[in-house]
Description:
Elements: E1 2-3, E2 10-15, E3 31-35, E4 39-41, E5 46-54, E6 58-65, E7 71-77, E8 79-80, E9 87-88, E10 93-96, E11 108-113, E12 122-123, H1 125-129, E13 136-139, E14 144-145, E15 152-155, E16 160-163, E17 172-175, E18 180-191, E19 194-201, E20 207-211
Antiparallel strand pairs: 1-14, 2-3, 2-13, 3-11, 4-10, 5-6, 5-9, 6-7, 7-11, 8-10, 11-12, 15-18, 16-17, 18-19, 19-20
Amino acid sequence: MAINTPLTGRFKVTCEYKRKGNWAAGWHTGIDLVGNDDKIYSSCNGVVTRTGFDKSYGNFIVVKNNDDGRYHWFCHLSKINVNKGQSVSRTSVIGIMGATGNSTGKHLHFEIRNASNKYADNSNPADYMGIPNRVGNYNTSNYQIDEKNATTLKTLDRNTNLRTEPNTDSPATLYLANTTLYVLEKSVAHSNGYTWDKVKIRVNGKIGYMINRNYK
Length: 216
């Protein structure tokens, strides 16, 4: 089993994604986490593209996700355990939680930037982690993923319906753009002029069918 969270065990969200405030973007571009264990794990299988120090982010690591090309930022670290160009997995301890840079206390600022890797061009890290985007206490044992049966991670690029059957007449639940999902089976059916995949929604585990051109 594996997880999409950069922490293990029990942890707390202390500041949610997109909270309005005195940030350069006008909102919080990541999610702030505090854990019982200070070890920071890579939240994806990928390659370290950058490490360094920034007066705001403190000691930071950037990992490019092999699955979707997005960039995972791990900030305010007390220690960096990896080097640029190094391949990492979800079981790799890449750093140690700290309070470097512009930080009021020890925590991890976890941020996911889209393919541009530019500030404020972000995806919701709570959706990726599979947790609610709100302050609260969580346990990673409740958010494990089975990578054997859920091999391809995708992100919706538009609002899209999850159908109970692979056709446009079956009951539907609408999911918003940037929701993450796993493709369990590709091209399971062709109906209504579309090709359908069997998918699993990352945040809640719901399984159904989607038109395969609606995610990236």
